[in-house]
Amino acid sequence: MPRQPDQPSTRPLLDKLGVKPEHRAAVLGLDDGDFLFRLVGRASDVYVNRRRAGLDLIFLGIERREDLRRLGSQRSFIAPNGAVWVVWPKGSKAVNENDVRDAALDAGLVDVKVVSFSPTLSALKLVIRVRDR
């Protein structure tokens, strides 16, 4: 029987985020020790508060709309088939899912998935349009 919308997913977070052992990832502005511990245990290379070219995944913590300005510079650090996960507080008045989507379009990215990152955080997966890769 399929999961009901109000039931939390039982899939591990790293699986929902698509983290694979061969991935290179960066975590920027996201203070979550448990997530970082799990990420380091799975991905081959993890950079904290720094980036490298050709990353498979970037996890970008956002607190306010103004923080979304940082999104524009992330595209050049991901591989053509890489992704940026923007993570923000659930129910925030300072930033919401529509703000993230608008900023993504301005940065040449499109959203493809939303997940519950934690009980207090949401995350939106952004990728480069297929035609632009």
Low-confidence stretches: none
In CATH, the homologous superfamily goes by the name Vaccinia Virus protein VP39
* β-sheet strand percentage: 25-35%
CATH class call: Alpha Beta
- Helix-residue proportion: 10-25%
What is the count of structural domains?
1
Q: CATH topology, what is it called?
A: Rossmann fold
What is Rg? 14 Å
The secondary-structure element order is HEHEEEHEE
Number of helices: 3
CATH architecture: 3-Layer(aba) Sandwich
Helix-strand makeup class: alpha/beta
- Mass-distribution shape: globular
Total strand count, please? 6
Mean pLDDT: 93
The rounded distance between the terminal residues' Cα atoms is: 38 Å
Task: Tell me the strand order in the biggest sheet.
Answer: 2-1-3-4-6-5
Largest sheet: 6 strands, mixed
